[in-house]
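ok here's the first one, seq then struct tokens
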Amino acid sequence: MALPFVLWIISLNLSPEYCYQFSLHWTRLDVPDSGLAALVRLSNGDMRKALNILQSTHMASQKITEEAVYLCTGNPLPKDIEQISYWLLNESFAESFKLSETKTRKGLALIDIVREVTMFVFKIKMPSDVRVQLINDLADIEYRLSFGCNDKLQLGSLIAIFTKARSALVAVRALCDKA
């Protein structure tokens, strides 16, 4: 009886956040805003996926926090992506290979890291031509990973494209300083 009511609410084409909040209220789960934001982000607007994530996370931990949602789904935490992005943008080529250790220690897939770093690149302030080239190169890596290419080789490619982007950013900054 309750399931058709929930499906009716979903069919109203309301915002995903509203539908998720309604579902949380209906299931009487206490989810902090950060947990809800993680649920919305990882489900990509798919209510079935959101309910599956919610159920899995609730079974794995009593509190449905942002960290619990990310750990339950196996996605990299936002703080991990920030750290990885920092290494890629600021460390030398050799130093950036510590990403491999982090990937192994936390059980992350390189394709998930590439997808999350791609979203992070959109948040960083940089010239549009550098951003476009970086996004294009990240898409190429994701494409190659989806066909089963060697992770270590693609990790080197990931570090190389950020090294190239960093060089382009330094060149743009030098041009701006001259002007």
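and now the second one, same deal
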Amino acid sequence: MMLHDGSTVYADTAAEIVEEMMPGLDSLDEPARSQARIRHAARTAAVVQQMVIDRARYEGTFDPDDAEVAPLVQILVTDKSLSLSLELPQHPGEPADWLPVVPLVLLATSYAPTTEYPRIGGNVIWIDPATDESYLASLNATGLFSYWAAETAGTLSNS
């Protein structure tokens, strides 16, 4: 795994890579590991969200300092450990998709089937800390990390 700072982590298992990101994780039982991944993922999701906002600002597609988009910014920077429900005023009670140009970064474990909150559709980047493998795969999808795993002898996949 290559981290955003350019450092590289080599390991035989997904659990060993996650342990490098969260020292001491290997001494925890699975329920405690799960909670530690979720806490780490919430902090990481905030970093990814800020990177997405910064990228959109750089590309000129979003100005977070514009007063007109202040409500969007408030949603984008909401605590990532919280579950959100989106609905349109003309359709109260019906889940709505996230449609703004800037993706919303959320934790999969804050939504169904883990909780009663329905998953938000649309322009969403999901970080899934349910397992070591799903966490690494979702971090890889954010672009914050590059993660490769050997599938079979001599074959690498970009997970």
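notes on #2: The two ends are 10 Å apart (CA to CA). The chain has four helices and four strands.
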